[in-house]
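Page 37, continued from 36.
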């Protein structure tokens, strides 16, 4: 078991010193919070958001997790969400993809020059017609299926299985490492190979927006850089818009163009990722600095 795997059951793992409890991190982060205006968020994306969230209140059943959240990320841009455990980071991704109850607010994407409201769409509709894909945390592959069959599952919304198989072949052409294991059951893959399969399966439908939940979780350090290199290639070479939640806050901000700090379901700080990396308070609370 790796150090990351041993740490996983505990609290926030963004480099916070063990002496500081999750509650204390949240308290200190809340003290740093300031009002982040819409104009500031728009400026970070050049006033051309590909994905936007306006005053979102969302949660699960009667439990509201997000309280008036605003978000902007530009086309072919990357956004990293960081914050203490319970801040609502994964709930943001769940809400975008349709896994939560939306009480009020709007989620829109830019498509063909117009804003498309996707707030009430189902997850299938968002994947098929809006180009939004969600890459789950670790252990989302089907272990008893082959690598090839897992990829075919990524095209489950396509009208014909032949289309899914053709799309899978394009993935194999791109990633020879997976192609060499196409007939192997997914359960025999290494941690890095499983994560590559999870990402690749989402690419079968050729989405334009990738929601990536904890890409480094459970991975040995030698695989983490490779995963972020894949995400960077998808952003910069394929033109994907990427929103990630990352428990390794330093790694996530090093990858991203912009970063948000969430605390208690609200936006506490937002800025260029480089600026957040250089912020001594962010470093002290989340980066181990």
């Amino acid at each position: 078991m790796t150090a990351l795997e041993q740490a996983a059951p505990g609290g926030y793992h963004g480099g916070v010193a063990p002496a500081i409890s999750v509650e204390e991190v949240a308290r200190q982060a809340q003290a740093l919070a300031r009002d982040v205006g819409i104009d500031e968020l728009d400026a970070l994306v050049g006033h051309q958001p590909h994905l936007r969230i306006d005053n979102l209140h969302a949660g699960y059943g009667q439990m509201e997790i997000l309280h008036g959240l605003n978000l902007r990320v530009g086309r072919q841009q990357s956004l990293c969400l960081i914050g203490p455990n319970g801040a609502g980071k994964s709930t943001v991704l769940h809400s975008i993809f349709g896994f939560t109850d939306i009480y009020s607010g709007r989620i829109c994407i830019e498509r063909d020059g117009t804003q498309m409201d996707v707030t009430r769409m189902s997850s299938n509709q968002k994947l098929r017609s809006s180009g939004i894909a969600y890459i789950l945390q670790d252990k989302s592959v089907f272990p008893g299926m082959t690598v090839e069959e897992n990829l075919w599952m990524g095209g489950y919304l396509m009208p014909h299985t032949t289309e899914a198989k053709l799309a899978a072949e394009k993935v194999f052409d791109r990633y020879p490492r997976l192609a060499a294991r196409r007939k192997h059951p997914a359960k025999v893959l290494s941690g890095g190979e499983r994560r590559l399969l999870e990402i690749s399966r989402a690419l079968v439908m050729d989405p334009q927006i990738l929601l990536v939940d904890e890409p480094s979780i459970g991975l040995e350090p030698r695989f983490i850089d490779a995963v972020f290199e894949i995400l960077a290639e998808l952003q910069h070479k394929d033109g994907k818009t990427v929103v990630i939640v990352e428990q390794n806050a330093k790694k996530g901000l090093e990858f991203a163009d912009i970063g948000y700090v969430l605390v208690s379901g609200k936006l506490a700080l937002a800025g260029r990722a480089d600026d957040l990396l250089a912020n001594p308070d962010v470093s002290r609370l989340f980066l181990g600095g």
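The CA atoms of residues 98 and 123 lie 5 Å apart. Flag for discussion at group meeting. Confidence is low (pLDDT under 50) at residues 1-17.
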